[in-house]
Design the sequence.
């Protein structure tokens, strides 16, 4: 009998792009399916290393539904050479994939509790699998609040999906923008300001936060001010990654490696170094 | 405890207020309600009543001739609308417009100012609480200016 073949984590496996969704002017979502075999399972919060042949490899969070086992979805914003190359790919193109890697959002910890999800900008992408997971299992959670901060209305990701979620009667979803245009009728201001308005039950609340690190620090402070314990506040950290296996040290964050110990880490574990510019 | 006093003390801004101070504050208060698109404040108008929002959302706006009003920020439950009542010349610097049905506690500014002058314990307690909101709002405004949603190059 042959032993199951475990993919070599160093070797990118070819995946074909089966769909491209333009999310914003500089942001796309790519659906990938495996060429050598089906895409594997992943946990909400994990990431893959995407390799554009001849250009380079970067870490990109999985942003699709974890219960949809037939494909992987990644949302990528064009900000550098590799990410720009990814956003130029088309349906039928092939990319290399290593992963999934990293820790997951602690969704079991939030069972039978209130769940507050705070996303800023592209930080909504790593949180979207968690939202899917929770909505598939909605009775397992009490109050579910999703707060989303974006730069402007034109940069709101997954707009149609957000509108559907907002219409659901059993979740609270608020979007706020920093720079409104004339037609915007929603919230204006940074997303941490929405936290103080929620009237949380802090002893029974778990919070998941992802976005630019400054936004996460302010959000974590607002959650702490509302009485939520640091052990119940989880952040998805970001550092440049190379090996994704905890070996090269490129993503070291104090005593942790973001690729291996993170990216999802409890505030209680990193609060002491979160504001240190040296790390 | 009267209904309005109970409502006021139920607001985070006034939680734990000493009974005498709570009674004094309530003496300046009334319940108000605004419909969507109804203006609560107008730039340049006398700052004679501030609002503590109980429910709903209010947009702080500023306008320029020939352009649509620009929303500076939005305020929601538990937040104070209006700080220009605190200091001379007691005139509003922004417009404020309800975005949805909004319930608030209206506080007569002159009544509050007079009571703060007459009773500095009340004045200090009130200022501490208002200052807490102002500091949070200042921090939020600074963060809003930072344009944090621009990604690092990768």
Sequence:
């Amino acid at each position: 009998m042959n032993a199951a073949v475990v993919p070599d984590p160093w070797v990118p496996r070819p995946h074909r792009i089966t769909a491209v969704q333009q999310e914003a002017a500089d942001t796309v979502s790519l659906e990938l399916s495996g060429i050598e075999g089906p895409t594997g399972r992943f946990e909400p919060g994990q990431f893959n290393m995407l390799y554009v042949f001849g250009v380079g490899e970067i870490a990109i969070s999985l942003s699709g539904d974890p219960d949809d086992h037939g494909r992987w979805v990644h949302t990528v914003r064009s900000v550098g050479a590799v990410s720009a190359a990814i956003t130029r790919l088309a349906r039928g193109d092939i990319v290399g994939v290593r992963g999934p890697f990293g820790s997951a959002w602690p969704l079991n910890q939030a069972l039978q509790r209130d769940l507050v999800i705070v996303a800023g900008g592209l930080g909504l992408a790593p949180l979207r699998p968690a939202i899917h997971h929770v909505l598939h299992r909605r009775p397992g959670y009490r109050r579910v609040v999703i707060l989303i901060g974006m730069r402007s209305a034109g940069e709101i990701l997954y707009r149609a999906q957000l509108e559907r979620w907002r219409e659901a009667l059993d979740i609270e979803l608020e979007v706020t923008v920093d720079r409104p245009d004339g037609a915007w009728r929603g919230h204006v201001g940074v997303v941490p300001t929405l936290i103080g308005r929620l009237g949380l039950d802090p002893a029974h609340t778990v919070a998941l936060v992802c976005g630019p690190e400054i936004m996460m620090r302010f959000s974590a402070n607002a959650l702490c001010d509302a009485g939520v314990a640091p052990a119940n506040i989880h952040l998805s950290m970001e550092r440049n990654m190379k090996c994704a296996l905890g070996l090269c040290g490129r993503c070291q964050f104090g005593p942790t490696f973001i690729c291996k110990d993170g990216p999802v880490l409890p505030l209680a574990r990193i609060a002491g170094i979160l504001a240190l510019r040296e790390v | 405890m009267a209904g309005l006093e109970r409502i006021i003390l139920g607001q985070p801004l006034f939680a734990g207020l000493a009974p005498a101070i709570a009674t004094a504050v309530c003496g300046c208060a009334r319940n108000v309600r605004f419909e969507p698109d109804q203006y609560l404040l107008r730039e340049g108008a006398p700052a004679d009543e501030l609002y503590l929002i109980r429910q709903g959302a209010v947009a702080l706006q500023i306008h320029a001739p020939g352009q649509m009003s620009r929303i500076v920020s939005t305020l929601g439950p538990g937040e104070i609308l209006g700080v220009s009542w605190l200091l001379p010349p007691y005139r509003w610097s922004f417009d404020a417009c309800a975005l949805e049905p909004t319930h608030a506690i209206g506080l007569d500014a002159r009544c509050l100012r007079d009571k703060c002058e007459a009773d500095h314990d009340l004045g200090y307690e009130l200022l501490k609480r208002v200052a807490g909101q102002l500091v949070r709002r200042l921090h939020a405004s600074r963060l809003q200016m930072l344009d944090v949603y621009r990604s690092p190059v990768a």
